[in-house]
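Suppose a colleague, Dr. K., hands you the sequence of a protein chain of 318 amino acids and asks what its three-dimensional shape might be. Before reaching for any lab equipment, you can write down a predicted structure in token form. Begin with the sequence itself:
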Amino acid sequence: MKQRSWLRITAIMSALALVLVACGGDEAVDSGDGDLPLSGVEVTVGSKDFDEQLVLGQIMVQAFERAGATVVDRVDLGGTQVARSALESGEIDVYMEYNGTGWAEHLANEAAPSNDPQELTDAVRAQDLEQNSIHWLGRAPFNNTYGFVSSPAVTEENGGNAYSMQAMADYLEANPDAILCLESEFPSRSDGLVLFDEATGYDTPDDQIKILDTGLIYTETAENSCDFGEVFTTDGRIGGLGLTLVEDPGVMILYNISMNIRDEKYQEAAAAFDDISSQILNGLTQEKMTELNTKVSFEGETPEDVAAAYLDEINFGS
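The predicted structure, expressed as tokens, is then:
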């Protein structure tokens, strides 16, 4: 049988999607084509609620659609525990998760994780499949670990140079009025603030912590309302807003992304899911993920448009 181009069918799928919406349809989109690798498979895609996850979620939504699946878009569910609970309960079938989060949070390992990204992913993959019937497919090269940035004013105090984590702790100790802005879950996560405190010997007091939504941390730190802010190291707003990353000597855990999918759904089209995860993840280098994040977080493009452009760039479905 002559193989069809997925990209030629994308226009058909888009047209069908518009018909479904016009008829009062849900968020599901069905290509209806029997020649594609996910034809006949229905998959519900979720994500966490920050820009990188929105991009990654939309990459999956559109990749699965191009591969012929019926897709229910549940991107932008909420925080880490919300997304994981949705996966475990079957509310969603798949979302993108980070190996460090899997190790420390979902699997509650007390031992320090490997500093080798593939070793860490392999360990998490084996444990989560055995204990929870969740597959970790592929591994992106980029490492979006937690980090800290200094505000422009605080950076200037340091001669325009980046702080080390120890120098950051020393600054906080010497300036009791200094503010460290964090997301709500960061102070209580086993892979969060505790790692900074343990590495530097500084027990960050509650009165130096200000809890903000993720996006506000960047803008408030850029405006010098926060002296330091917790960030994701691939976020495009770091450079765009003139923030300076605090140098990490290896304190924070690795965070490489993999596609997490329930075993029941995976078994419906295992080979196709394996192939798709490799195609969409292998090109996500540190530079590329930062570029995609910048387009959304700083340049104002939509996650949907950024995802579509990335899939076209890697010739997905051609």
